[in-house]
Write a structure and sequence with these properties.
By secondary structure, the protein is α/β, with parallel strands linked by helices. The protein has three domains: 5-142, Chitobiase, domain 2; 148-483, Glycosidases (TIM Barrel); 507-553 and 590-666, Alpha-Beta Complex (Alpha-d-glucuronidase, C-terminal Domain), CATH 3.90.1330.10. It has 20 helices and 13 strands. It has helices at 18-27, 38-55, 78-81, 115-130, 182-193, 213-226, 241-244, 256-272, 298-309, 331-339, 400-408, 420-424, 454-466, 472-483, 488-509, 541-544, 568-574, 585-588, 603-626, 634-666; strands at 31-33, 68-70, 95-102, 105-112, 139-142, 148-152, 198-200, 232-236, 278-281, 315-319, 350-355, 379-384, 435-439. The strands form two sheets. An eight-stranded parallel barrel has the order 6-7-8-9-10-11-12-13. A five-stranded mixed β-sheet has the order 1-2-4-3-5. Helix 9 links the parallel strand 9 and strand 10 (315-319). Helix 19 runs antiparallel to helix 20. The chain is globular, with a radius of gyration of 26 Å. Bound molecules: 4-O-methyl-beta-D-glucopyranuronic acid (GCW).
Length: 678
Amino acid sequence: FSQKPYDLWLQYDKIEDQAIGDTYKSQVSNIYLGTNSPTGIVIKEEIEKAFKGLLEIEPKFDAKTPNLIIATLDKLDASIREELPDSSKINDEGYFLQYISEKEENKLIISSKTEKGLLYGVFNFIKQMQLRNDLSKLSISDSPKIQKRLLNHWDNLDRSVERGYSGFSIWDWYLLPELIKQEYIDYARANASIGINGTVLTNVNSNALVLSPRYIQKLKALAEVFRPYGIQVYLTARFSAPIETGDLETADPLNAEVKQWWKNKADEIYAEIPDFGGFLVKANSEGQPGPNNYGRSHVDGANMLAEAVAPHNGIIMWRAFVYSEEKPEDRAKQAYSEFKPFDGKFKDNVLVQVKNGAIDFQPREPFHPLFGAMPNTPLMMEFQITQEYLGGMSHLVFLPKLFEEVLEEDTYTQGKGSTVAKIIDGQLSNKKLTGMAGVANIGTAKNWTGHPFGQANWYGFGRLAWNPETSAKTIAQDWLKMTFTDKSDFVDPMTKLLLESREAVVNYMTPLGLHHIMAANHHQGPGPWVKDMPRPDWTSVYYHKAAADGIGFDRTSSGSNALEQYSPEIQKKYSDPTTTPDKYLLWFHHLPWDYKMKSGKTLCYEIAAHYQKGVEQVEGMQKTWQKMQEYVNPQVFEKTNMLLNIQLKEAKKWRNACLLYFQQFSKMDFPDFIPKMT
Ligand code: GCW
């Protein structure tokens, strides 16, 4: 086996099927590459790597009569240009892959408006060979639907990673700017291959030190590595930085000196890194400083920073993850309450970054009501790729299925079909800025993500940021084929396994709309009993409300009425438990233990049945995996085996702990299928 975990989905193992390999070789025997810019050089290197691996040939770039042409549209001969679709079919980052057959000559064309688009086209072209597709059928016009496709690293300057389960931060700040690690280059390749075009290098719980001149030099070195790959660097901005650096006594966003301080800071950064992306800010959230400290609003804070970066085309991503310990309001309502009144008030270069759900990256949450509530503000989606609440380093969970579910949800704000995907890609409002962020699961682990299947979540995030309407199934199939093998005896059962893995984790952790019942602080493992915490909204009892009368959080008008933050269509459906989808039942309703479910069984029975099903689904995953040995690198096979054993053990622990805990209130016997617990 030559599958190398470090190489992620960019496996360029030799194509075994000789007929396919020979056909490809004849189709790409002479290459014209119409650029020798830094991006042109990385294109050349990638082609070399791919051809040496897949086809075992040294690509020829000096051809007079090329059959593979890689050049921006302005560099193509008119006769070839005519064979391509109209340039309006793609945007500045898009590309064409086209097979043309004229007279006796056949040609493959990779073309685009910009070199960045060309690079994306080349990665897709290589992928076509990884997938063993017929190159003579190629006719693809593709463009990203979202502009800012970013990873968010929650990486600290001491290289610890908040909620990171894959080793330490890959940013070796101590040895930068002098030492450029190969990992930085391979990180850029991997991201560019899926269209990611920006990375926020530092934790949202941020450290002002990164804004100091010494760190700007380190940042500059990384920016130079990433630039040819079309990746911009961004930082998190600590709101109190003007004070912490010792320069000022206040960070009040309306203070003239503070404004000037940030302008100067932006000028200083841009002088070194002209394509610096901008800042991501977590303000007045979980103890972070922010404009509220000075009686100012989120708009005041965001707009002040936006002004500082605007002359350089920078952007501000202002997070809406806010909930206050002083407020008695249901935590699920608070971000909406605070941000909706600001709709339309942010400057043009501000994106409000909203987590997919209103609580916090749970195995399942309804979509965040803000997505349907700020038509005049660009909203950026924030997904979490690292599995903070989904078993961290040990559980196989294919997250694109979760992301897809959120993106497909209908907000109804402009009638039926107003999906979250269409809100964030700007289709429904012509928003000037669009974006999607994923909290990275990357670290110093030799395979980048710790769990071998964590790679699929990084890959899938990139695919959905490029096009939020991509199906999780397509993503699963592509990733499996590119990472392991295209054999259908592997790809078909494994696709099924991946797609089911998300529902499994929901079943054995938080079925039927339960949420935030994890162990305190680290969030790994069950903790429905958690009640003594510094804040009530950090406990579990706050969320499940299990008592003698039943279980669940009443978010209808008889309870917190969080439901009123959604469109009337959703309110109507979800205000009645009989029309609420089972998957959100206990998110919106508090119901008696003997409440009769759609299945005809009691709620208590269904809770048990879901926990049991989750455990059985993990057993099913193990069975499938056992049959995959012949297709997988032995180390990856064994590692995944062992991790699945841990996952099964933990799934049973979740089932047992939650059912025993809830039973003290329900006083009902477990159904027979629940194994005896001692
Ligand atoms: O729920 C919390 C996480 C924190 C994280 C925070 C956030 C970066 O537990 O670790 O802090 O979300 O998203 O800001």
